[in-house]
């Protein structure tokens, strides 16, 4: 019971760290028109800061991952959080859209550097089914951030203007620094002896990670699944506010239903992992996702969509991500031992870059209907399933023994 409580406590703290990025993106969505007005810019320009953040976040992870393998998890997380805090306060002082976007990029670098250590810490301490259960707990708690972030941002916007949103983000990062210092131990006990230059260390770390080609199916799958999620998030304002003409007052509630579906699924996944092999869960979820996205495409193509049916289909698609994320990440990291930070950097970079790419592509095919969005989601789902088809075949007896030790601990 003690281990269970400790594991759950660690998962909650790491989830709070991982939630930094959903908070950094979703809290200011409702404030974008106000920011554009105050900075004498336009909404599309300020919207660009979302893609810029995702790009900077990916770069931050790539830069910080190998460093966390070399010098430890905690120093990298604290450095990233410091950068995030300073840049958040600089955003408050921004007087132009260029300045705003620049500091959002720096903020993203810090956020990526801080967040990249979360999965690496889990990989340092857990493997197999146990790591999947920890990731499921993290994923479930982490998705609470986009669930509440728009509402939190709206409250700050109404009470004290858009600047207060970024002061809140800075304060949240300060809280994370305290948690990291006091309640998350250093897990990288065996540091890499600095016998090679830093540049050579990067090359060696990423080369060792990329040689593990057996982990690629899980990497590609999650990148494509991230494309689904970011396509929905990027187009959320169009879907709800423009197409279905939902009021701005009700928008946060509709938006919150999307991550809520993933939270519920993550909770179910956590229970399934106690008795079902994670490859089986992953394969089943990928099949379900493919079937639901096919229905979504057919529905938006052959009829005039109504909000409740559309919401049911979109939420069902996002729910499958609650089963896919934790198992993809757990299986991927099983192939990467001492390079957990570098491996997670590639995983995070690929998923966020793909998400930004597909989110942007959906804008190129805009025609005022939901069909292009549905087709893009369907393509991502199909490619994800194709990537996982062979990798999630029935596990060997030895793999099953590794997955289910005689006395597994439960987070």
From TrEMBL:
UniProt keywords, alphabetically: Cell inner membrane, Cell membrane, Membrane, Transmembrane, Transmembrane helix, Transport
Membrane topology category: Multi-pass membrane protein
Keyword Signal among UniProt keywords: no
GO biological process: xenobiotic detoxification by transmembrane export across the plasma membrane
Gene3D superfamilies membership: Multidrug resistance protein D
Subcellular location, record wording: Cell inner membrane; Cell membrane
Predominant location category: membrane
Any Pfam family hit: MFS_1
Residues annotated as transmembrane: 12-32, 44-64, 76-95, 101-122, 134-156, 162-180, 219-243, 249-268, 280-301, 307-333, 345-365, 371-389
Domain Major facilitator superfamily (MFS) profile residue range list: 10-396
GO molecular function, one term: xenobiotic transmembrane transporter activity
InterPro entries reported in the protein's UniProt record: Efflux_drug-R_Bcr/CmlA, MFS, MFS_dom, MFS_trans_sf, Sugar_transporter_CS
GO CC terms: plasma membrane
PANTHER family: MAJOR FACILITATOR SUPERFAMILY (PTHR23502), POLYAMINE TRANSPORTER 2-RELATED (PTHR23502:SF132)
Family note: Belongs to the major facilitator superfamily. Bcr/CmlA family.
Protein name, UniProt field: Bcr/CflA family efflux transporter
């Amino acid at each position: 019971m003690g281990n269970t409580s400790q594991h759950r406590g660690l998962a909650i703290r790491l989830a709070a760290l991982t939630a930094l990025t959903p908070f950094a993106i979703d809290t200011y969505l409702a404030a974008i028109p106000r920011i554009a007005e105050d900075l004498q810019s336009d909404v599309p320009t300020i919207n660009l800061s979302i893609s810029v953040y995702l790009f900077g976040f990916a770069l931050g992870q790539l830069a910080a991952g190998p460093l966390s393998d070399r010098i430890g998890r905690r120093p990298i997380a604290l450095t990233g959080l410091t950068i995030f805090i300073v840049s958040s306060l600089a955003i408050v002082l921004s007087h132009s859209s260029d300045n705003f976007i620049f500091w959002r990029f720096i903020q993203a670098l810090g956020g990526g550097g801080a967040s990249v250590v979360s999965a690496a810490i889990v990989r340092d301490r857990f493997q197999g089914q146990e790591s999947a259960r920890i990731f499921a707990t993290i994923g479930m708690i982490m998705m609470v951030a986009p669930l509440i972030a728009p509402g939190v941002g709206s409250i700050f916007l109404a009470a004290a203007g858009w600047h207060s949103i970024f002061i809140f983000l800075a304060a949240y990062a300060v809280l994370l620094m305290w948690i990291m210092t006091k309640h998350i131990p250093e897990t990288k006990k065996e540091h890499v002896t600095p016998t090679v230059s830093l540049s050579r260390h990067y090359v060696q770390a990423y080369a060792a990670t990329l040689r593990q080609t057996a982990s690629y199916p899980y990497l590609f799958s999650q990148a494509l699944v991230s494309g689904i999620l970011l396509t929905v998030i990027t187009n959320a304002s169009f879907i709800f506010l423009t197409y279905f003409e939902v009021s701005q007052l009700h928008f946060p509630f509709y938006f919150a239903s999307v991550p809520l579906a993933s939270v519920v699924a993550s909770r179910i996944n956590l229970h399934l992992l106690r008795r079902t092999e994670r490859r089986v869960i992953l394969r089943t979820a990928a099949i379900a996702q493919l079937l639901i996205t096919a229905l979504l495409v057919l529905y938006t193509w052959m009829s005039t969509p109504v909000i409740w049916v559309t919401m049911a289909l979109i939420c069902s698609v996002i729910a499958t991500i609650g089963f896919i994320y934790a198992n993809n990440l757990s299986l991927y990291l099983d192939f990467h031992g001492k390079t957990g930070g570098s491996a997670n950097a590639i995983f995070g970079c690929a998923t966020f870059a793909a998400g930004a790419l597909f989110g942007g592509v959906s804008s190129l095919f805009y025609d005022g209907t939901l069909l292009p969005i549905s087709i893009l989601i369907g393509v991502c789902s199909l490619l994800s399933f194709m990537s996982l088809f062979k990798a999630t075949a029935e596990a060997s007896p030895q793999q099953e023994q590794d997955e289910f030790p005689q006395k597994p601990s439960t987070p």
